[in-house]
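testing teh design pipeline on a random one, pls ignore if ur not involved
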C-alpha cells in the first residue's frame, strides 16, 4: 500500500509540478474553449493550431502555435484586446516567461512581431499573444494563477 501511495505521489508530481512539457490532444478545441470561456472570443474560420504543449506546473500554462487567415488577424486581435482586461502592448523581445520554452516557440521569426498581454475577464489568468498584421502565424500563451 505504501508503494502505491509513493508511486501515486511521484506520478502526480511528474504530471503537475515537474515543469515537463506534455502534448495537448485536440489543441484547437482546447484553445477555442479557453478563448470562449475566458474572453467570449472565437477562433476565426480557417484557423489551425499547428503545435501545442502543456507545462506541468501548479499554475497551468499552455503554449500554442497558430496559423490564422491573414485577413482575420486584425479583427481577431481587436476582438481579443476589447474582450480582455488590462490589455498591454509590450516589447516583443522582453523577457516574460518563467518556464523552459518549447523549441518551436519562435515569435522572433515573425516579421514586425508585436506582443499583447491581457488578463481574462475574471482575472484568474491571462494570455500573451505574439502576432503581426503582416503574418498569418500567431503564438499564444495561456495561463492560470
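output:
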Amino acid at each position: 500500500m505504501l508503494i502505491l501511495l509513493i508511486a501515486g505521489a511521484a506520478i502526480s508530481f511528474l504530471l503537475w509540478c515537474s515543469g515537463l512539457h506534455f502534448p495537448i490532444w485536440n489543441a484547437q478545441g482546447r484553445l477555442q474553449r479557453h478563448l470562449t470561456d475566458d474572453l467570449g472570443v472565437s477562433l476565426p474560420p480557417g484557423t489551425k493550431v499547428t503545435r501545442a504543449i502543456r507545462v506541468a506546473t501548479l499554475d497551468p500554462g499552455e503554449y500554442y502555435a497558430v496559423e490564422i487567415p491573414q485577413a482575420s488577424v486584425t479583427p481577431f486581435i481587436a476582438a481579443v484586446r476589447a474582450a480582455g482586461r488590462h490589455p498591454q502592448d509590450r516589447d516583443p523581445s522582453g523577457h516574460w516567461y518563467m518556464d523552459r520554452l518549447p523549441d518551436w516557440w519562435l515569435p522572433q521569426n515573425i516579421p514586425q512581431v508585436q506582443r499583447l498581454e491581457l488578463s481574462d475577464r475574471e482575472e484568474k489568468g491571462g494570455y500573451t499573444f505574439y502576432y503581426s498584421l503582416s503574418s498569418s502565424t500567431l503564438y499564444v500563451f495561456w495561463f492560470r494563477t
